[in-house]
Amino acid sequence: MTGSHVLLDHILLISMTLLWPIAEWRWYYPRSVRNIAAGLRGARARLYRNCIVPQWVFSACVIALWARLARPWSWLFLGPGIPLRLAVGFFPVALFLTFLGLQRRALLARPERLNLVRRKLSIVDPLIPRTALEYRLMILLSITAGVCEELLYRGFVLWYFVSFWPSSRLGLIVAVVFSSILFGFGHVYLGANQIKVSAIAGLVAALIVLAAGSLWPAIILHAVTDWNSFDLGYRTVLLNSDEGPSLLVPA
Q1: pTM of the model
Q2: Which of 81, 172, 180, 235 could be bridged to 214 by S-S, CB 3.0 to 4.6 A?
């Protein structure tokens, strides 16, 4: 996982890890929250779309750059991988998702407990869907976060820093730390505390990717975790709506 940088690597890193998060934090997300609070029609759907599109644009830029320079896809952990390493990477993911499924079943068995989930998700309340259209967009956003954020942060950003110290264990450690911090900063629009939470999640994802030699375990973990949180939030909204729990999507 080595290779020299070109100017576009630096531009892409600065744009996706600094400029876009700052713009989202200082301008776009607060404006979207105000529009949602004001009841502007389609405000939340536009927020979803405008979170989805930049991630795919940045991901497309990375893929195009790799193809143009004929870089090995394994540097982005997109190669076929080694079955044994994949199994090692998928094992903790399978354990966590099993626990998540059991927790989810327990919550849905007693819907009144969903209000506890709603309080824990209060920081992302503007992102919780309220309609069937928003729910579908939320699913797309969860998939996008899983695929694109793992490609960008555990693929491109990790490679970017490792390339400064090729074949160095210390360099790999520094790269994991830096990529995790930048991943945390990518969530600055949700507040300072979320930076720490996301940085820790990024660190765990990086370790899973390195163990597996592939992005896929982290992609699945990321997408399912995001979907589960927003789905439970959506169920809570509907549970407390005038229509009652009958509108809840199937378990």
Answers
A1: 0.92
A2: 81
